[in-house]
Each structure stands twice: as C-alpha cells, then as structure tokens.
Amino acid sequence: MGKPTGFLEYDRVEDRTVPVKERIRSFKEFHTALESDARREQASRCMNCGVPLCQSAMKLSGMVTGCPLHNLIPEWNDEIYHGHYEHALSRLLKTSSFPEFTGRVCPALCEKACICGMNDNPVTIHNNELFLIERGFREGWMKPRVPAVRSGKSVAVVGSGPAGLAVADRLNQRGHNVTVFERDDRIGGLLMYGIPNMKLDKSVIERRRKLMEAEGVVFRTGVDVGGSGENAVSAEELRAEYDAVVLCCGAKKPRPLAVPGFEEVEGVYYAVDFLTNTTKNLLAGKLAAAGSNAKGKRGRKKSTDTLISAKNLNVVIVGGGDTGNDCVGTCIREGCKSVTQIEMMPAPPVERAESNPWPEWPKVLKTDYGQQEAIEEFGHDPRIYETTIKDLVKNKAGKLTAVKTVQVKFENREMKEVPGTEKTIKCDLLLIAAGFIGCQDYVAEAFGVERGPRGTVQTETPETYATDKAKVFTAGDMHRGQSLVVWAIAEGRHCAREVDEYLMGYTTLE
User: Fold this and answer.
1) Among 442, 457, 487, which residue's Cα sits nearest to residue 232?
2) What is the CATH number of the domain that holds 34?
3) Residue 198 lies in domain
C-alpha cells in the first residue's frame, strides 16, 4: 500500500470518453487513457486490503464477484503508484493472458468486489489494467517469449476465441507444438466478429496474433474442423495427427425468437450475424459510420455477403444484455431512423436493494454506451421492459414492416401476458440478441463427445476439461455455456494445465 491516504485524497477518475455526437461518426474506440501521474493517483486509492476480495471470484447469491483470473490486483496497483510500470505489468501477466482484451470488454467483476466501493467509488482496476498492457506494447516490453525447449508433443486447438487463445498460449509456453484451427478468415472468434470495433479495435487482436506467431503458435484460418466443405478437416485426422485436441468453439447456437416462421421474414437477423456482417464489411472497407457514402442492402437472415445496414431503418432489438447494447451502438453509427430495445424482465432498481448488499454483484440498472448514445441521439432511453414480441408484420413481398408486442409479468417464475397491452412498433430491421443455447452441433458430433442438458460439451465435473473421448478436451463457452471473455480465458488457462499434465504426467503450469 504505497499511499495509505490515497483513497481519502483522490476521487475516482475514469478514462476520458469521446462525446457522443463525435464518437457515433466512426467505429473507432472512444476512450482515452489518463496520463501517468493521474494513473498513479488512481492506483494509490487501492488499500491493499488484508482480504483482497477484488481477486477472489466468490460466488454470492448465485453470481460471481471478484476476478475469475485471481489477478494480483493490490500488487500491481502498488507498483503503478510507485511508477514501476514494467514490474507491474509482469505481475499482471502472471495471471492474465490477454489484459488488452479484458481491459476493454470485461464488466470488471473485480471492481464490484473492491472494498473501497463499499461506501465510495471503487478503484479504477479495469482502467489500470488496460494502461499497463498498452504501455507494455508501446514501450516494447511485450517481446516474444520463445520456449527454450520443445517437448515433442503436439496439440490441436479448435477455435481461436479467448479460451482457445489462452490454451494455445499456455501450452506453447510449456514447450508443446500448438496449432490453432479457425473456421473464419481471421482469429479471435467473438472477439473479432461478435464485439464491435468501438469496444475492441480489431488491430488489437492482430497485434496479439503476431506476438503468438513469433512465439511459435501456428494459426490455420479458413479451416472448418468437422465440417463437410472443401476446407474441412475431419475429427479423425486431428486425433490421429496430434497428441491432444482441445475444443474451444464457443456456444454460438442462438436462442430463436418465439414466433413461428420468423426465419422466413426478410429483415430479421440474429444479432451475432448482424455484428459479424458489420465487422467484416468494416474491415473490407465497405462500411463507414453515418454521414458517409456507404450504402447497405437489406438481405435475408442467412446472407453474410451483402452489407446488412440499419441506415434509415426503424430497428427493434430483442434482448437487454451486452450484445443488445452493442447492436444499439452499431445501428446508431449506421444511421438508423429509430431504435427500440425490448427486454422481457422488469427494470432493475437504480440503487442496490437491501437484499443485494455489497460485495454481491450489484443488480442495478446499467445504462451502457449504446443506450447513452440512443438517449442523446433520439431523446429517450431505447429500452422497453417487461415486453415480448407476439408476432411479425410483413408486406406482400415478405419484408418486415412492424412487430406486435405485449407486456408480460412473472408469477411463480412463469411468464404471463398482460391483457390489453398489445402494441405495434414500426420495424424494418429486427435483431435477435436473446442469448445462446449451447454449442453448434456439428463439431461436437464429429468428435462424438457427450453433451449435457445445456447443449454444452460434458466433462466429469465443471472444474475438469477432459471429455469422454480419449485425448479430447474442451474449454470456454463450449464447456461452461455462454459467459464472459474473462471466464473463457480462465477456462483456457485451467484447461491448459490439465492437458499439460495429461501429456507429460505432471505440470509446471500454475
């Protein structure tokens, strides 16, 4: 604890944010880091608590609070305060594989458990983490760590999302020869195509790829493991060629809309398809924010070639989570005419209820960047609570023109419609962001691994990673179900330890 009075002297100051009217004109990241002196002040607010709950990952009332990676937060906050940035980074990297990802997209479970936040605002742990890793890249401290000795063992990692990358990184550092197979044209999984550029610039992922390649990891993109096309590789080939195979394909099967025939209506898309399409067109130079000359075309839900644009359209988004919010921000940048976000659950309270005390995860209303932008752009919050879609209205050509909604209430955990609350909302573009219901079938079927009732790949316990098939392991959302990037990284690190022990008979990975 470098400055015992830091939390008394300094208020919480977060990274600067670009004003809404300016940031919605581009798909660029919109946060600017504090200068070093200001960052040291923020780090000095850390009290080096005797029991640092920020790094605990405790489960309270069914939800986790504290860092799943068990980052050594008080240690590197103290080093930041003293200006020992390179050493602070080394302590961060001891437990965290990719701080440049979590420092951007993690909801900061650590800060929710920060003791400073019990009666005041928590330490800016999230911003401090990002400051360290970006300083490390800028100063040249992030050099390739090439293993001195190779084990002679080979591992295939299927999927290059955060879990797959974490597995590959750890096993490569152990000296195993790791090849990562990715179905798409770029690595990253949902980091690349499920999270918009304004939250995570794609150059950040490419930067990490180059570093991992320099360390010896091999990436094979455009390869569909378990598929049937010309770029397919069979499960049998991988099991024959590699000493271990790790499945990290995510939980990408989207929850469908409870309206019969919705797939056939033009203008209805799953949110992940819309966000993927947006990023691919942005990377290809075919898309710019509103005010540009970019032109989009409305296509059917399964199309990934044609630009799906929200420009001049009335947009309705089903789902109140992070993905729904990302769709709001994306549609505003594309120049939508209006945007409405439908949430089935009631609005959370503005402040903690007595039944939700610190350090539990705060079940309070969060207005994220997309909603903030909608409020400023359209003059009202885009969210409508306790509402669901009953039907879709389309014209003779099969194009969506409106959605019919009804209010709902929950009684004994059962959702019931409220009579007389039906409404019709203009809608040209409907985005389904209702979450995911498990991993896609064909990879799991190709390897013949057992799946559980949640549609994820089954292992002996939730804390183990070996499947029921010899030398086949799994990690990340494919194993635990839809979750956070930080949990995927944690799973990847733990899985790597189990794979290493399987290959060598022991492990030195922590």
Assistant:
1) 442
2) 1.10.1060.10
3) 154-252+437-504
Residue 172, token pair as written in the block: 């490569």
Q: What are phi and psi for residue 463, nearest 5 degrees?
A: -95, 5
What are the tens digits of pLDDT across the range 193-233?
999 999 999 999 999 999 999 999 999 999 999 999 899 99
Distance CA 176, CA 75 (A): 31
Return the SS3 of 36.
helix
Cβ–Cβ under 8 Å, residues 242 and 502: no
CA–CA dist 287, 24 (Å, integer)? 14
Is 346 a domain residue?
Answer: yes
Q: Which tokens hold the place of 378?
A: 């359209």
Question: In this structure, are residues 128 and 76 in contact, taking their beta carbons and an 8 Å threshold?
Answer: yes
Final residue of a structural domain among 139, 163, 194: 139
C-alpha distances in angstroms, 424 versus 114, 384, 506? 44, 13, 62
- 263-301 per-position pLDDT tens digit: 999 999 999 999 999 999 999 988 887 654 444 444 333
User: CB of 71 within 8 A of CB of 110?
Assistant: yes
Nearest C-alpha neighbor of 247 from the set 399, 448, 52: 448
Is 162 found in the same domain as 88?
no
Nearest to 161 by CA among 442, 501, 452, 439: 439
- Exposure letters 364-402 (e unless 16+ CB within 10 A, then b): eeeebbbbbbbeebeeeebbbbbbbbebbebeeeeebbb
Q: Cα separation of 176 and 244, whole Å?
A: 10
pTM above 0.85, yes or no: yes
* Contact (Cβ atoms closer than 8 angstroms) between residue 135 and residue 160: no
Q: Both 396 and 490 in a single domain?
A: no
Question: Residue 402: left (phi > 0), alpha (psi -120 to 50), or beta?
Answer: beta
- Among residues 394, 413, 432, the one where a domain terminates is 432
